[in-house]
Design a protein that fits this description.
The protein contains 13 helices and eight strands. Residues 237-241 have low confidence and may be disordered. By secondary structure, the chain is of the alpha/beta class. The chain has two domains: 1-67; 71-232 and 259-394, SGNH hydrolase (Rossmann fold), CATH 3.40.50. It has a five-stranded parallel sheet, sandwiched between helices. A three-stranded antiparallel sheet has the order 1-2-3, with no helix packed on it.
Length: 395
Amino acid sequence: MEANDALLRTSAARKRVIRLTALLTRIWVILGVVLLLMIVLEISLTSYYQRADKKEIQSAVKAASSGAYANADLAEEYFKELIDAGDRRLPWAPYTQSREPNYTGKFINVNEGTRRTWNSEAINDDKSTRLKIFFFGGSTLWGVGSRDDFTIPSLVAKMLAENGISAKVTNYAVIGDVTTQSLIRFVLELRKRNAPDLVVFYGGRVDASSACYEGKPGVPFGSSNLERISSEKEAKARINIKLENLALIRLLIGKKQHVGCSKQLDVLSDGALDVYLGNVRFIEAISRSLSFKALFYLEPQLADKIQRTKYEEDQLLKSEKRVPGKSDLYSLMRSKLVKRQYESLGRNLIHDLRTIFSDVASPIYINAGHYGEDGNERISRKIAADILALCAPAK
């Protein structure tokens, strides 16, 4: 009897094990199928988002070329090259965080970190008498939206040549540079005993934009990301899979919305202006010591253009939706400059170009932050006139 009970218990236990094994097998099969479906979905979504992002860029190219450029075919060819040139991360550089990668193209050429600039043949045979001019700034000065020969530095060089001044112009601008990065790049050139006769600092808008993006003034773009990665963990962080980079997460949470800076306009504009004016004071002190001249320009922004086209209006709305308060912060920063620069520098030294497009009804901007070659020409006329006025006493 006991033997039969033992057999029954053994049989029942064996059946439970078989059922449990079958259940686990089914669970593993289901999990495997789910995992496989997730992998397939992730690959499909990644491909979809890549196509969608590329299509968004291409549609922006067509929209930009339809208004701001007379030759739409040439503009589309240019923008395709610009996308190719920008389809790489900026290489790391000591002190400045980044530099422009080298690139060779039909419209865009960068060598050793500097964009190719139009330079005249020396008007006289003695090249040592040529005016040596450095330009520093961000993406608008670098020439996003412009061919090499039609960036602001190139156009200024042409205008000076038309007025009998032979100049060797170098464009040291780097996409995304705040003024402090530009200052450091300048100091690095001076350290190499490469001093100019004249230096032009063009920007300000990036300083305000960075303060809005990062939530604090005086830091480069992306500083908050770098702070989260210590040097010991940097290599490991590069190979770790980040959830926010998965297409499935992008599908679930949608496009990430930046909170903007609308609630901190006063504090951030004060801080950004303090940093900017501090840099100007430093450059002025160096200029007196090394006997070169310096010009400073606060660039315009799309919100300054009163007679905006429908395309420009759409771009402004999209930009403000992406980062609320960005345009207002820069406007407030410049408004405070009127009083603060005299208190800080003792004189009105900085040229504010906010009104340079105010009476222009034709298309100027290719997106919320960059203007085309017509915009460059209008700005270059102002800068060239200022340079000619500086050179007049020596003529």
